[in-house]
Specification:
Order of helices and strands: HHEEH
Low-confidence stretches: none
Structural class: alpha+beta
Helix content: 40-55%
Number of domains: 1
Number of strands: 2
Distance between the termini: 23 Å
Radius of gyration: 12 Å
Shape: globular
Length: about 60
């Protein structure tokens, strides 16, 4: 239910800040992702481009 709410809000142009440790979840819900390490943004891009840049795969 919460994932559907996030998708619906995003479709209306609302920015939603989502914290997750799962790239799969970010890929489903986000158009842009920031990776933060020790309080600093280390990378920001679309989930697909970040996965390619970091060599991550979704199973």
């Amino acid at each position: 239910m919460i994932r559907n709410l996030i998708k619906d809000l995003n479709k209306t142009g609302v920015t939603v800040f989502l914290t997750t440790h799962y790239i799969e979840e970010a890929d489903q819900l986000c158009q842009r992702v920031a990776m933060i390490n020790k309080g600093k943004i280390k990378a920001i891009d679309s989930p697909e481009k970040l996965r390619l840049r970091l060599g991550l795969r979704i199973h």
